[in-house]
Amino acid sequence: MTSPGLPARALLGFIAAVLSTLIFHQAMWAALYVAHMMPPPFPMAPTAPLGVPKIISLCFWGGLYGAMFGLALPSLPRPLWLSGLGLGIIAALVGLFVVTAIKGLPIGFGFALVPWVDSLLINGFWGIGVGLITPLLMPRAPRPA
């Protein structure tokens, strides 16, 4: 794998994370829905303040994490799916501690078990997807003839 420049790595990381949101994140969400732990996947309810569908918001914010993953790619330890899992855990913790506080909700959802399990499973699975998809999007070095 060749290492493209910073803007290309950020863009490809963003794209990988959006794809991972639509595939891995929502697949785990669907599994938890079947287990009666989450509402239906691909939520279309409007989000504040712009009123965009929640799935679009999830793709955008996931994409920003993915851009950071792409920028850090050359220095990340291998295997990348494991680094992606770390990214997912970080995203889950930010959601549980920072986003809840910004939204005026109890920090960590009051440390109730189900939201923690849901968040760590969904975001962890999403992060694994980022770690699997990102290298697939990176340019490959030409093979010697």
Mean pLDDT value: 94
Order of helices and strands: HEEHHH
What structural class should be given to the helix and strand makeup?
mainly alpha
DSSP strand (E) fraction? under 5%
Shape: elongated
Number of helices: 4
Low-pLDDT ranges: none
How many strand elements?
Answer: 2
Give the termini separation. 17 Å
- Cα-atom Rg, whole angstroms? 16 Å
Strand order, largest beta sheet: 1-2
Major sheet, described briefly?
A: 2 strands, antiparallel
Percent helix range:
55-70%
Keywords, please?
145 residues, mainly alpha, two-stranded antiparallel ribbon, 66% helix, 3% strand
Question: What do you see in this structure?
Answer:
This protein is mainly alpha-helical and 145 residues long. It has helices spanning 6-34, 54-72, 80-102, 113-137, and strands at residues 46-47, 52-53. Strand 1 (46-47) and strand 2 (52-53) form a beta hairpin. The longest helix has 29 residues, at 6-34. The mean pLDDT is 94.
Quick structural summary:
The protein has helices at residues 6-34, 54-72, 80-102, 113-137, and strands at residues 46-47, 52-53. With 145 residues, the protein is mainly α.
What topology does this entry show?
Blueprint: H1 6-34, E1 46-47, E2 52-53, H2 54-72, H3 80-102, H4 113-137
Antiparallel strand pairs: 1-2
